[in-house]
Amino acid sequence: MVDFRETDFFSDGEIAQDLPSYLASLRSACPVMQEKFQNVFMVTGYDEAVEVYNQQGEVFSSAVAVTGPLPPLPFTPNGDVAAQLAEHRHEMPWTDHLATFDGTHHTQHRALLQALLTHKRLKANEDYVGGLVIRLVDGLIDRGGCEITKDFAHALSTLVIADLLGVPEEDRPALLEAMGPDPTQLGGDEGFKVGADPLLHLHARFLGYLTERLDNPRDDMLTDLVQAKFKDGGDPGLHVKAQLACFLFGAGQDTSARLVAFAFRTLGDMPEVQAKLRSEPHRIPEFIEEVLRTQPPVKTMSRLAIRDGVVGGVDIPAGSIVTVCSGGANRDPRRFADPDTFDYDRPGVRDHIAFSRGSHGCIGAPLARMEVRVALEQFLSRTSDIRIAEAQHGPADARRYAYEPTYMLHGLQALHVEWDKT
């Protein structure tokens, strides 16, 4: 087990390789504990995490949601932290994107996107997902196995969100290339894309799509977005709408790809669970929820205290950064009985906080759940057994997995699986 007192969560990639043990150690000492390297208050308890999310906007700002303490704040907190943040926000990474917005600014822009994610559009996207999964599986099934993250999950999640938005089919392969590998985050500026708009490499492309929709509207989400207005009738403008499209595209493909990989790892590592799920495929949604609880794709969400607050009885001074560790909260034994056991029959199987909570809850959660469900339905119906490839990951009693060395995102670097066709 990692000695949490002597390890910097935000710079030591080894923690990612033994994350549940690290978070359990932290939580057993105190579910709200200030670590000594970055002076961040680490929240690993379930009730305490919900406390943080319930105080968003009032006590805690989302300005550092993505980056946490790295890079450091562009100001030294002193006095009116809310005023200091307002003055310096433009200097902070990701400040142009929805995840870091606060208050009315966040409410307006989130509502703009939320209004576009209609049941009708998601249903039409599900029809596309079904056909896409069949095509992807057709290309893989006779191989008897693959590296699931590269050969299936990344392509699935990227093409699904591209279809939902209305990206022309001929442009989708280029978008797969444009996304590239995920940043490591570790190492501050060197390891993580920083700046007000880290998705700038996508901005011109989506701005072009929106501009084209002005003259040639279509039945797609990009057309709806370019025509959308705030509830008060105001129009945020094309550049802001392009940023929203970039954010939805980037976030939409990222979380889903990680979730797909963890779902397959669970099936391969737990043959008894796989057999049970094959006998009751209608329970795939509950299975996905338990995957989310035990292996949340987003490892942390951070908040900046803009005024003095209290979480779990611990005083949080204004200017402090609080980091909610979803993997710790989701395995809190005070909330989940036998938390390290995978059990999709457990009561409250959807009570996890893998998709955050409150005003900043993941806007794309229904999409992620849907595409993973469709993928599992197809794979389970076309195979009789899915296994972890021992040549790459070792035998069942001595598995070897490598995790992405990040402090925000939780994902496998690779997952090699094998299967028997039906």
TrEMBL record:
Keywords: Heme, Iron, Metal-binding, Monooxygenase, Oxidoreductase. The keyword Transit peptide does not apply. PROSITE patterns: CYTOCHROME_P450 (PS00086). Signal peptide: none annotated. Belongs to the cytochrome P450 family. It comes from Novosphingobium anseongense. The keyword Magnesium does not apply. This is Cytochrome P450.
